[in-house]
């Protein structure tokens, strides 16, 4: 059965309004505000990405629904405060999409390369930022982004005005320099300096990913997934002997790790 999208949106908005009703609504929902809901919004976005990475297509409608709920929740709180409502959110993104796609909704030619469309997109966004009084090159890069993703966006912005290394080899040289500074901080400067130098090293690693056309956030997520798989293989191998990791030692677990690594490569 095909559902009516407009009717389902209306139904969702009505449910959210009922949950927030000060007399008959849910006490938990009534107590929430923008700040308390924001972490759930971020969490739901990550769960959408997780379902996509796992290709769990049967789960994706539910995860997208959870993310949509976050938009509806924020819009309902804003409506109660007389700030804006869901219709304003929908209108804002519709207007933005039309403005940013003159080659679809305007009279510009669609006969462009992907690279040219990216350049045009960035030029349009620069006009939007100017309208918001965002005059600095790095203005408007959201503070709430994951740190690696934000580093990448900051670096991309700086690169567009010429502040960038010529190529990956220069970034690798900088990584060597930052590694030496981290060692020096560890040995002589103390924990605060060590944290700062560690952050500098991570920032340059993100820049290397950019030059190699690798998304550092995605690369680290995949590394996390690989670590999880291989450690689970260690646990499974030990469990076959009725043991747990704490009953083993590093040498044995390292052998089991390497075995899991070989098994993955063979299966692949």
From TrEMBL:
Coiled-coil positions are none
Q: What class of enzyme is it?
A: hydrolase
Q: Which reaction does it catalyse?
A: ATP + H2O = AMP + diphosphate + H(+)
Please list which residues make up the signal peptide. Answer: none
Please state every residue range assigned to the domain named NTP pyrophosphohydrolase MazG-like.
Answer: 32-105, 171-230
| E.C. number | 3.6.1.8
Top-level lineage group: Bacteria
GO MF, one term, reads: ATP diphosphatase activity
Q: Which UniProt keywords apply?
A: Hydrolase
Transmembrane parts of this sequence = none
What does the entry give for GO biological process? dATP catabolic process; dGTP catabolic process; dTTP catabolic process; dUTP catabolic process; response to stress; TTP catabolic process; UTP catabolic process
Family indicated by similarity? Belongs to the nucleoside triphosphate pyrophosphohydrolase family.
Protein name listed in UniProt: Nucleoside triphosphate pyrophosphohydrolase
* Originating gene: mazG
